[in-house]
Amino acid sequence: MYALNQTRVTEFVFLGLSDNWMLEILFFTAFSVTYVLTLLGNILILVTIVFTPRLHTPMYFFLSNLSFIDICHSSVTVPKMLEGLLLEKKTISFDNCIAQLFFLHLFACAEIFLLTIMAYDRYVAICTPLHYPNVMNMRVCVQLVFALWLGGTVHSLVQTFLTTRLPYCGPNIIDSYFCDIPPVIKLACTDTYLTGMLIVSNSGTISLTCFLALIASYMVILVSLRKQSAEGRRKALSTCSAHFMVVALFFGPCIFIYTRPDTSFSIDKVVSVFYTVVTPLLNPLIYTLRNEEVKCAMKQLRRRQVFS
Questions:
Q1: Domain G-protein coupled receptors family 1 profile: where (predicted)?
Q2: Which of 42, 139, 233, 267 fits 67 for a cystine, CB–CB 3.0-4.6 Å?
Q3: What's the whole-model pTM score?
Q4: Mode of pairing for the β-strands spanning 11-14 and 173-174
């Protein structure tokens, strides 16, 4: 708290994605469309699951939570990025920067935990189908979702504390389009080696450990599929491949960025755009285009609205 009170920096300035105004207009158009599609796609999945009784199962309960998290995750960074693309000077107050950092890590960590839970759900459904109704009942699912939000909150509070305890007395230029721990702590007026190591042990370890757990669960599932019927294998592979695509698209950038906070590469901005802007859009596309049950539910919901 003492370090925070001594902060002389009152705002940060983003360098953004480019200093070419033509590119900025192009980025603004593309990312505006992407953001709107992200909101519409994830809201559509939420509405479809809520108003379709046969989708009130653990798998779709987790999927609806994923859509909610994707809406929140993209909304933390994209609106501010779009605003910056229209302004010559891209600034954010110190308090708003810390708030953005907090919610970014809250929703990112919640998604990491949720994807891990979803992999466990598929493992139980495929490998021990007879025990599935008892192991993954709705009470357990609600408890797991509560636990992931609690874990995400604790993680984000720790990351925020590590950042705000450092003194910031200038410079205030962030080589990014949003506030995240690696670029922000580089501006601290003190040695940040220990803080960087704590970040690796927190964000990096969570990302890498959950990713390895996911890989292990999918390997077990693939081995167990040999005992399934041809139809069972097809359905299981379709579901698991969709899950694994989402896992790879989200975990790859997280591991790339948060396992080396003291090192920066020119490709970091591209990677950040991918997991804050693109991935939240791809999730609903992957889960709807590859899921016949969801597509049928959407068609029935549309017919019901038309004829009512």
A1: 41-287
A2: 42
A3: 0.87
A4: parallel
The three-point CA angle 38-40-41 to 5° equals 65
Residue in 6, 50, 2, 10 with CA at minimum distance from that of residue 172: 10
- Residue 19: enclosing H or E segment and its boundaries? none
Tell me whether the omega of the peptide bond preceding residue 171 falls within 30 degrees of 0, making it cis. yes
Q: Give the whole-angstrom CA distance, residue 76 versus residue 71.
A: 9
Could you report the per-residue pLDDT of 75-110, keeping only the tens digit for each?
999 999 999 998 888 999 999 999 999 999 999 999
Q: What is the DSSP letter of 55?
A: G
Q: Which of 61, 243, 46 is nearest to 138 (CA)?
A: 61
Contact status, residue 244 vs residue 4, Cβ threshold 8 Å: no
DSSP readout, 79-131? HHHHHHHH-SSEEEEHHHHHHHHHHHHHHHHHHHHHHHHHHHHHHHHHH-TTT
Report the share of the chain in percent with pLDDT over 90: 34
| Distance between CA atoms of residues 295 and 157, nearest Å | 39
Q: Does CATH place domain 2-307 in 3.40.50.300? A: no
- Which residue from 104, 280, 278, 277 is spatially nearest to 203, judged by alpha carbons? 104
Burial of 65 (0-12, 13-18, 19+ CB in 10 A): buried
**Distance from C-alpha of 130 to C-alpha of 225, rounded to nearest angstrom:** 15
Q: How many CB atoms lie within 10 A of CB 293?
A: 15
pLDDT in tens, 176-227: 899 988 889 889 888 888 887 887 777 777 888 888 888 888 888 878 777 6
Q: What residue type is 48 in one-letter code?
A: T
Question: For the chain, what are the domain ranges?
Answer: 2-307
